[in-house]
């Protein structure tokens, strides 16, 4: 009895597969048995802290493959195993029925069956013994017989002593926010309503109604710690800063404190705790940034010089990308001589902010730190706080991004901002939703970030911003934007060909008119409320692209049960585009000639439709897309 | 430093991947490192009995994937491992060059490099130390410098103490016959030149020139043991046999002996040894049949009743397929109480025939015996005789066939006889050549067997036999036929819809006119000599199908270095078919508009050709296909 090709597993069980608490999860395996015996199998899932596993019978899918569907309800580190065996009782019953129906004498077969049932009886709990006794009684009479079948069904759930047991495969169960959410990034110091002073955490509290109206689930703040003064960067990343320049929040640490402190210019730890509570009241989680590096004035530089790498002359090694040197940043030496104390201190940092109420972290450049460190850190955090979410900001080579997802990151930034053509978009979203990494890599697609003002937004129209928003919100259960630059359609870069914002908030305080006429905020809020109302948009496994005869229009559906959403986006920001699409109605569980209504969640328009073919025309002057719910006659 | 997605591996190293002695083997892995360090890696291959592994440097293929090419020369159980490390010396040299070229002061960098080289020096063998010393000397001068680069190259082959080592992955190295050969099956008792007596092993010796002229590499004989008399089957599988009926060779064992004996009607053990020697003199290996079952008169039934399963009344259990019972066959109880002794006895049987000179076995119905038995038996045999070949006759579900290949079978019969349409043929041969099982599952495609006279041959013309032969010989490095029924184009089945031969040699002696006019034997011999001359046809990894605008014509190529073979077969046995093909010349390493000549290995005809498009017309009245070698101007 061989158990092969078990899913969901990652690298043969080396890393956990991931799923969501409350979601149905299909566990499948090839159960390969020599000869012609029938096979029975169960799946056992062990929840964190559980004394014993819960058992689910597997059903055959044909071709030696079986499946059990389970629904974990707790978050945290689970495990599961498959147990399969050549089921002699089921095989005996099948064969005996065949002999019986052919008119053969089955006296011997019945004696043999009775012996098999007696052996099973010895291994059963008291309440099941009566089932066997009834079957033994019934074996004297004609077959098929329901009492005998009840005993056979019992055998199908009762592993024999020679059953094959798979390894225990780890399974990470996360909260729904791990896979579905709208992220909004904002610099607290740019949140001031008063143009004469920088913003504070208190100003962010005042902005919560705005953020809520946008439909955000997560409000992510860049680092809120004291900012280094030594080699501080000035506006537009200039090497010389004036006394009034605030510096980059990622140059962490000054006399006021390091990773455990709140920048006094922003407020206090209490202000943060208040913001977290107020945000949660609005249904918004506050995400903080974990950036494992220090400014030269970080207290740890003096207190723990052994936490940094040193050069041959005894000075601390700067960050560098040869031949460039970053004199305002010291990386931690996570594999250095005092590794254990440093790792423990960083775990302490995460727990400090968790204790302040934070459950979501965006992690800066995790790919420049060792994989074993992340595997240890995230496991330690999850052991106490199983629902904490880590978003990996690793814009690097694909296999490195995947390794980070394997070692524990809940989500990852993606290449979305650089996927622009129809075929790039289809290939990439198919890879995210259905590729070999989909058991552990969850993409969070961002329209822009403080580091990335994509060329298409710089060159684009209002329709470009709307199109990118619809692609992100309509195709990916998790997406994000950096505001208010996004909704205010900021498009000036520091230089031609650069993706850096001009006058970037990374290096200076900005004051924004959040309520400027023409802001996309009302549209974004409307879109996100529609998203929230449609379960089809909350997961990615149902994403499917459909044919449309125009290379500038993308057509897709997502589905959850009876909820079906049909999206169209035009990639042309200047000209009207139209086309005929051909929907794969069978894949949507619909009839080939079915008549239905599509209701545009963006404009409230309704159109009648029949069959697979349909015509759309998209105007960049209004909204360059549709997000339809499909309304069937029957529903 | 993570090592992922290593190939060739099977189930994460649970089973050996397979390769051929003397063939180049690419070993690849993803080497995933945090940060921006350069990665170095080696592959170590350990041959059977070797004291130390042989080491090969890996080269980067880009996208974090690396490859080493190795060529094992011995057959038997090898293992390999990948060792990879963040190469601080290579990284230091790259970074220092970048600083140097930017005009920065690199004094500190040179000091740090010297320290790294000193550390490497301490771990080196004597002869390499001079390389380091020369580099240390050269570090005072300008960079780049060849002495320093020699030391960096040395570092690339010298794993550091913190290098990551993959598990040891098993690798089975087989002789070329494991993947490439023409098999011919013949009943010795049908080999008599005298219609008044059955054939013997001596008659088979006399047939060797015929078999050699056919181009066979392996001559496979059904079981040659004494045949049981109890419940012996008569002609056409009838339940009543007359005294003169010889019975089925698969009903093994009688008073004259069991699996260790030669049927006295066929000859003696010496006759077999003589046949093996004579065949090898002709370049032909004799394959015997391993059928693990007994007739009721097998000596073991009385000597070792515990080697058989018993029913509730104490009688021995027959083979059955409910409601059918096979009263002439007792299966062995390979999981019974005397399991160890039975397994040892069966190993003894295999070694007995190996000692008689046999190196190739066709194994009857291995899927009705436990996988662990086969894994043990084949490993035991290979430990002493590493070049023995086992062909699995498992016509069963795909995953069972694959599991048998994983646990040790060298080759397997396939579904070829039931793949008839163009799309079925293309899909199936692509699966065999390129599917996920191709690292361990080697298909041997047969045109027919004593059990399978396919419907297309029953209904077909001479062209059908030729077409099936060309498909098998042209697409698969290993193929076989059951003769002389195949070359004499026997097509009568026992009943409509049945694949059983009428008057099957399984149950009666037949006498054949091997030299009948119209026999396909001369064509087969010609085809197999062409096959032998073309290395392209000796492996399957280069198989590629090309477009042709006719659903009755299959077009494919195989390639090995400069040897390129282009095949066409028409599946229409009655009408002339023609079509335009479009060859993927780029995939063949040829120029888009290249002019070349195709030379038909079957008819010696030559045609000029230019570019991808070409016209073919295939006539079932002559030969329904081409097997071209492609002759380029340059070669």
Termini gap of chain A? 46 Å
| Pair of chains with the largest interface and how many residues each contributes | A-B, 41 and 41 residues
What strand order characterises the main sheet of chain A? 11-12-13-18-19-20-21-22
| CATH class categorisation of the largest domain in chain A | Alpha Beta
CATH topology tier name of the largest domain in chain A: TIM Barrel
CATH-level-2 architecture of the largest domain in chain A: Alpha-Beta Barrel
| Arithmetic mean of pLDDT of chain A | 97
* Strands of chain A, count: 31
Question: How much of the residues of chain A is beta strand, in percent?
Answer: 15-25%
Helices of chain A, by number, come to 14
Q: Poorly predicted ranges of chain A (pLDDT <50, ≥5 residues)?
A: none
Rg value of chain A: 30 Å
The main pleated sheet of chain A reads as: 8 strands, parallel, barrel
Secondary structure elements and pairings:
Two copies of one chain form a homodimer.
Chain A: E1 2-7, E2 17-20, E3 25-32, E4 39-46, E5 54-57, E6 59-62, E7 65-70, E8 76-86, H1 88-101, H2 107-122, H3 126-138, H4 146-156, E9 164-165, E10 169-174, E11 181-185, H5 201-214, E12 218-220, H6 269-281, E13 285-290, E14 293-294, H7 299-303, E15 319-321, E16 324-326, E17 330-331, H8 339-355, E18 360-364, H9 371-384, E19 389-393, H10 398-407, E20 411-413, H11 422-434, E21 443-446, H12 455-459, H13 462-475, E22 478-482, H14 521-533, E23 544-545, E24 547-548, E25 553-560, E26 563-570, E27 577-582, E28 595-600, E29 606-610, E30 613-618, E31 625-632
Parallel strand pairs in A: 2-10, 11-12, 11-22, 12-13, 13-18, 18-19, 19-20, 20-21, 21-22
Antiparallel strand pairs in A: 1-3, 3-7, 4-5, 4-8, 6-7, 8-9, 8-10, 14-17, 15-16, 23-25, 24-27, 25-26, 26-31, 27-30, 28-29, 28-31
């Amino acid at each position: 009895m061989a158990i092969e090709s078990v899913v969901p597993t990652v690298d043969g069980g080396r890393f956990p597969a991931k799923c969501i608490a409350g979601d149905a999860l299909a566990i499948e395996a090839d159960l390969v048995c020599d000869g012609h015996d029938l096979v029975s199998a169960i799946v056992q899932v062990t929840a964190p802290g559980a004394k014993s596993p819960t058992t689910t019978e597997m059903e055959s899918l044909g071709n030696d493959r079986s499946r059990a569907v389970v629904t974990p309800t707790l978050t945290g580190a689970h495990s599961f195993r498959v147990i399969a065996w050549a089921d002699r009782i089921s095989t005996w019953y099948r064969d005996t029925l065949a002999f019986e129906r052919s008119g053969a004498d089955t006296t011997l077969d019945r004696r043999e069956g009775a012996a098999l049932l007696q052996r099973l009886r010895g291994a059963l709990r008291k309440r099941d013994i009566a089932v066997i006794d009834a079957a033994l009684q019934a074996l004297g009479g004609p077959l098929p017989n329901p009492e005998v079948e009840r005993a056979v069904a019992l055998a199908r759930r009762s592993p024999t002593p020679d059953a094959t047991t798979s390894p225990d495969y780890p399974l990470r169960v996360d909260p729904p926010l791990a896979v579905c959410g709208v992220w909004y990034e904002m610099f607290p110091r740019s949140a001031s309503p008063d143009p004469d002073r920088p913003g504070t955490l208190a100003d962010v509290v005042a902005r919560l109604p705005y953020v809520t109206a946008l439909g955000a689930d997560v409000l992510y703040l860049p680092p809120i710690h004291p900012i280094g003064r030594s080699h501080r960067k000035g506006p537009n990343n200039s090497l010389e800063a004036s006394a009034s320049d605030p510096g980059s929040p990622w140059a962490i640490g000054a006399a006021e404190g390091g990773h455990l402190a709140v920048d006094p210019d922003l407020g206090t730890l209490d202000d943060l705790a208040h913001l977290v509570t107020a945000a949660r009241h609005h249904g918004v989680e506050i995400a903080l940034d974990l950036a494992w590096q220090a400014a030269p004035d970080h207290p740890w530089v003096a207190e723990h010089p052994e936490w940094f790498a040193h050069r041959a002359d005894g000075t601390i090694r700067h960050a560098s990308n040869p031949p460039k040197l970053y004199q305002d940043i010291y990386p931690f030496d996570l594999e250095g001589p005092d590794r254990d104390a440093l790792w423990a201190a960083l775990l302490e940092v995460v727990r400090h902010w968790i204790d302040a109420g934070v459950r979501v972290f965006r992690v800066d450049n995790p790919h420049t730190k060792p994989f074993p460190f992340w595997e240890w850190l995230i496991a330690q955090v999850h052991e106490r706080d199983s629902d904490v979410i880590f978003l990996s900001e690793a814009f690097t080579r694909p296999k490195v991004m995947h390794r980070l997802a394997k070692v524990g990151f809940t989500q990852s930034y993606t290449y979305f901002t650089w996927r622009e053509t129809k075929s790039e978009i289809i290939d990439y979203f198919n890879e995210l939703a259905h590729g070999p990494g989909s058991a552990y890599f969850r993409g969070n697609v961002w329209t822009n970030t403080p580091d990335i003002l994509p060329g298409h937004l710089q060159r684009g129209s209002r329709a470009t911003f709307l199109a990118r928003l619809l692609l992100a919100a309509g195709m990916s259960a998790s997406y994000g934007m950096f505001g208010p630059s996004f909704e205010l359609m900021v498009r000036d870069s520091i230089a031609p060909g650069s993706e850096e914002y001009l006058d970037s908030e990374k290096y200076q305080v900005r004051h924004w008119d959040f309520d400027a006429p023409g802001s996309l905020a009302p549209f974004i809020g409307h879109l996100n409320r529609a998203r929230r109302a449609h379960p089809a948009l909350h997961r990615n496994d149902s994403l499917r692209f459909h044919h449309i005869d125009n290379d500038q229009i993308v057509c897709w559906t997502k589905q959850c049960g009876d909820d079906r959403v049909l999206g169209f986006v035009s990639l042309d920001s200047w000209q009207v585009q139209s086309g005929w699409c051909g929907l794969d109605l069978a894949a949507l569980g619909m009839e080939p000639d079915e008549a239905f209504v599509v209701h545009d969640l963006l404009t409230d328009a309704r159109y009648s439709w029949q069959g697979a073919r349909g015509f759309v025309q998209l105007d960049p002057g209004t909204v360059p897309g549709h997000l339809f719910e499909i309304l069937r006659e029957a529903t």
